[in-house]
């Protein structure tokens, strides 16, 4: 994986060749437009990250913010990381169905969806999938995967 040394998203985008920047910008626009409140866009691990800040949830295995999505220009392709589709089988099935219905080819590992051009993706479905997981639900999915009991979350009222 190619990792940028950029400190800001602007620096990251400015460092990309114009054609790559254009494709990343299209997908970034869809993500940002549909991103539920409570996530923030930042740079992390050398890619554009959409994450739950540590101020909101700090009980992560690596003491880093809990990632929800990511976006990167790799050496030979671009990647959209969808942790929600990795953690939630319903989202994964929804994504697979969107690719089938659109006639596009899905090239995805566990959470990394590879594409060359934004038009290779069913962008409307990507937006719906991004919009579908509130940070509280992402925390629940994370805790289920880590075998944790539901913890008290910062910024969420107790029931």
Please state the second-level CATH architecture: Alpha-Beta Complex
- Beta-strand content: 15-25%
**String of helices and strands:** HHEEEEHHEHH
CATH fold title: Aspartate Aminotransferase, domain 1
Strands, total number: 5
Largest sheet descriptor: 5 strands, antiparallel
The residue-averaged pLDDT reads: 90
Main-sheet strand order equals 1-2-3-4-5
Which class in CATH terms?
Alpha Beta
The count of domains is 1
Unreliable stretches (pLDDT < 50, length at least 5) are 152-159
- Tell me, briefly, the overall form: globular
First-last Cα distance: 42 Å
* Structural class by sheet pairing and helices: alpha+beta
Number of helices: 6
What is the helix fraction of residues, given as a range?
40-55%
Cα radius of gyration in angstroms: 16 Å
